[in-house]
Amino acid sequence: EIELTQSPGTLSLSPGERATLSCRASQSISSNYLAWYQQKPGQAPRVLIYAASSRATGIPDRFSGSGSGTDFTLTISRLEPEDFAIYYCQQYGSSWYTFGQGTKLEIK
Amino acid sequence: EVQLVESGGGLVKPGGSLRISCAASGFIFGRYSMNWVRQAPGKGLEWISSISSESSYIFYADSVKGRFTISRDNAKASLYLQLNSLRPEDTAVYYCARDPYRSGWFDGWGQGTLVAVSP
Question: For residue B109, how many C-alpha atoms fall within 13 Å in the half-sphere facing its CB?
Fold first, then answer.
């Protein structure tokens, strides 16, 4: 099982600032099979990024993903009020998919 | 538009069973792998099972292997999860999720159905 560790646990920023979220894997993820999801209270998750850096359909270009191997990053270039939520990374490089524990992005 | 609607959740006693369903619309269900992902109250996401488009490949997380069974009926555009030998730690919102390219990430999610296991 590949374990994913997200940091920080909570990130406090203001609208307009840049957010950098980290996801570290316990072993290398094959073919960079890593996705990022956003979840707001009472809602299902929504995919933002797949294959480490590909934006899903309809996702604004202020969201970007990068990284390879064991270290991955989700960057939100300029925070909008609707971006404050919980973010999860997920690996699908093995037949047993796993999620990180989440990073809560809150308004400062 | 991808629409997934879960149903069948409820309160069940430890050791009990439940079958939850996911009705799909807005896409050709039989062409996609499908998954169940759960989320315990106030906790993160946990993938628990996947099934390929023709049910040829099925996988489970260790936490549910031997107790839960995933299945699908492509003619009815429906996904199912049979939950047996339920434990309090199985209490969660259960989401069905579509895998767009048989790759393992999920581009469509239902609103979830709550399964609560309690005496």
Answer: 22
- Longest C-alpha distance within chain B, in Å? 41
Q: In the structure encoding, which two tokens stand for residue B93, read together?
A: 């919102």
Sign of CA dihedral A60, B99, B83, B43: negative
Q: Is B27 on the interface with A (CB under 8 A)?
A: no
The token pair at B58 is 């099925």
Q: Is the pLDDT of residue B102 over 90?
A: no
Of A43, A57, A92, the CB nearest to B105: A92
Of A47, A95, A100, the CB nearest to B106: A47
Sign of dihedral through CA atoms B41, B44, B47, B53?
A: positive
> What is the tens place of the pLDDT at every residue in B29-58?
999 999 999 999 999 999 999 999 999 999
Q: CA A28 to CA A26: how far, in whole Å? A: 7
Q: Do A45 and B110 touch (CB under 8 A)?
A: no
Residue A42 to chain B, least CA–CA distance (Å): 9
Q: Is residue A57 a contact partner of residue A68, using CB atoms and an 8 Å limit?
A: no
A29–chain B nearest CA distance, Å = 13
Q: Which of B45, B50, B59 sits opposite A45 (nearest CB)?
A: B45
Across chain A, what does the average pLDDT equal? 96
Contact B57, B36 (CB under 8 A): no
Identify which of A82, A40, A44 has the alpha carbon closest to the alpha carbon of residue A63.
A82
